Amino acid sequence: MRIHIETDRLLLRDLGDEDVHGLFAMDSDAEVHKYLGDKPIATLAEAQKYIDFIKQQYKDYGIGRWAVVEKESGNFIGWSGFRYVTDTINGKTNYYDLGYRFIKKYWGKGYASETAIASLNYGFKELNFEEIVGIADVAHMASNTILQKVGLLKRNEFYYDGTLHNFYSLLKTEWENSKIQQ
Fold first, then answer.
1. Domains along the chain?
2. SS3 readout for 112-164
3. What is the mean pLDDT of each run of 10 residues along the chain (182 residues)?
4. What is the pTM of this model?
């Protein structure tokens, strides 16, 4: 399993079959899916299908969400990182989306911000991305706060699946002039 990023507290590595129970614990929780269309999963097979989808993204695009592991405990606590989006969303297509999702008991520990900053730095420095995008339901205050805190700039609002969302992005040149670089 390839480790892509290591922070003081966390490892970000390829998502694998061994993460199916952790992914199920996270994505079967209705609170976790409150701002994601209220569609929690119901079976381990659905969790495995998501892992298989991410593994295919690694093959097709060289990138996909990464498992986040707490170093101290060794526990899978969620996922973070990039997804290459080929659908047209908000008039944009073929872009790198920054995202994060965690098991509820790990909320409020700063892990989303920690992984988002580390991912931005990795995306611009190591992967040489020109732009990174973040999207959040306007009602999801925590996610909007994180995207702004890590330096993404709100560009506009748009409707996605009938729900108003904020569209954020950060260009490499903006990142180079920001204070978020590590």
1. 3-176 (3.40.630.30)
2. HHHHHHHHHHHHHHCCCCCEEEEEEECCCHHHHHHHHHCCCEEEEEEEECCEE
3. 90 97 96 88 96 96 96 97 95 96 96 97 96 97 96 96 95 87 56
4. 0.94
